[in-house]
Design a protein that fits this description.
With 380 residues, this protein is an alpha+beta fold. Among the domains are: 47-59 and 284-363, Beta Barrel (conserved putative lor/sdh protein from methanococcus maripaludis s2 fold); 63-71 and 204-279, Efflux pump adaptor protein, beta barrel domain (Elongation Factor Tu (Ef-tu), domain 3); 108-167, Helix Hairpins (Orthogonal Bundle). 24% of the residues lie in helices and 38% in strands. The protein has a six-stranded antiparallel β-barrel with strand order 3-10-13-12-11-14. A four-stranded antiparallel beta sheet has the order 2-15-19-18, with no helix packed on it. A four-stranded antiparallel beta sheet has the order 7-6-4-9. A hairpin with a 2-residue loop joins β18 and β19. The longest helix is centred in the first third of the chain and has 36 residues, at 5-40. The radius of gyration is 43 Å and the shape is elongated. The model has no long low-confidence stretch (mean pLDDT 86).
Length: 380
């Protein structure tokens, strides 16, 4: 049975559609292949960077730690006996000498008791003098004389006890120092132990910091310690190690070290956060780079070395190689590299955040980042 005319037309149309789709598919496939080839050979434009030649220097080996300032003498003065504040004889934040009266509590009741006790003491003294004369004449016995003598001593002790109570109601500075903020007011009732004012001796002061136990052997009593308080504009203070703790912290395996600072201008205050640096050795060879040259990452710090790089087609161009490094500390704008690069290598000093391994670069060193071991902050 021959196919109908309609069926033949359908076959012709399907064949034409199939040929059309095949042609389109072939064209698109060749376009995609061409795009892939172009992408594989595409070289992005070079990135503008600055570079610096790695230089070797002799740096002292320094141990860095975090410490805090503590006073050699520091207390919060408090009331010894209960009473009402009758006089506040100081201002917050002033310097005081040892023994200065800061607060007086009301002692009117004790003063009255003292007057009565002194009168009783005077009576006991007179009675003892009369009895002494009678004892010499044999009128009274020795036991009677001893009783009057004991009464006179009791009266004397009672006067001393009341005077001591009056003195204890005068709160004095136990040592010279600087007062904190006043915590009492005139007419306020104080219980025994209630705080009055902090007092800190600031000349000298301690700085306490911790070091790993394996590095304690490199430290010695009398060794120099340099500290920089946070927010003090980088100003250094020099002190000396005076003591090591007798135990090692079981959690951190660190040993607590105490250094003493003269603090003549009272610039270090108890509780202040400081960065402590202790020199461990005379010097060690390191490669110095500006801090901006380091690409910091959790898996390791790295730098980019500028050198001739070979492209995928065998051509060479000026590009970078990422090199992981080991750091040993910082000084001003500089960081010390102990392994990973060699002196004389050209290292990218700025623009590292936009680079990848093998990226092309264009060096422009008209403006360089800071590379000063002892920079000074600019006036603002």
């Amino acid at each position: 049975m021959k196919p109908s005319k309609l069926a033949r037309r359908m076959l012709v149309m399907l064949s034409a559609v199939a040929v059309f789709l095949g042609v389109i598919g072939t064209v698109k496939f060749r376009q995609i292949q061409s795009a892939i080839a172009n992408a594989s050979s595409f070289q992005p434009p070079p990135e503008a960077v600055t570079t610096v030649l790695a230089a070797q220097e002799q740096w002292p080996e320094v141990l860095n730690s975090i410490g805090s300032v503590a006073s050699v003498q520091g207390v919060t003065l408090s009331a010894d006996l209960p009473g009402v504040v009758a006089e506040v004889a100081f201002e917050s934040g002033v310097s005081v000498r040892a023994g200065a009266v800061l607060v007086r509590l009301d002692t009117r009741q004790e003063q009255a008791q003292l007057a009565a006790a002194e009168a009783q003491r005077e009576l006991a003294r007179l009675n003892l003098e009369r009895i002494s004369g009678l004892l010499g004449k044999g009128v009274i016995s020795h036991s009677e004389f001893d009783r009057f003598s004991a009464e006179q001593k009791q009266a004397e002790a009672r006067v001393g006890e009341i005077r001591a109570s009056i003195e204890r109601k005068q709160i004095r500075a136990p040592f010279a120092g600087i007062l904190g903020i006043r915590q009492v007011n005139l007419g306020q009732y104080l219980n025994a132990g209630d705080p009055v004012v902090p007092l800190q001796a600031l000349q000298p002061v301690y700085v306490n910091f911790s070091v790993p136990q394996q590095q304690v052997a490199a430290l010695r009593v009398g060794g120099d310690v340099r500290v920089t308080p946070e927010g003090d504009g980088g100003r250094e203070h020099v002190g000396r190690i005076t003591a090591f703790d007798s135990v090692v912290d079981e959690a951190t395996r660190n040993v607590r070290v105490q250094a003493t600072f003269d603090n003549p201008k009272a610039e270090l205050h108890p509780g202040m956060f400081v960065e402590a640096r202790v020199r461990l050795a005379d010097s060690a060879p390191v490669v110095t780079l500006p801090a901006s040259a380091i690409s910091y990452a959790p898996y390791g710090d790295s730098v980019f070395v500028v050198e001739e790089v070979k492209g995928p087609k065998g051509e060479t161009y000026r590009g970078v190689r990422q090199q992981f490094v080991k750091l040993a500390g910082a000084r001003g704008d500089q960081v010390a590299v102990v392994s990973g690069i060699k002196p004389g290598e050209e290292i990218v000093s700025s623009g590292v955040f936009k680079l990848r391994n093998g990226a092309a670069v264009r060096v422009n060193n008209k403006i360089q980042p800071g590379n000063n071991p002892a920079p000074k902050p600019e006036n603002s």
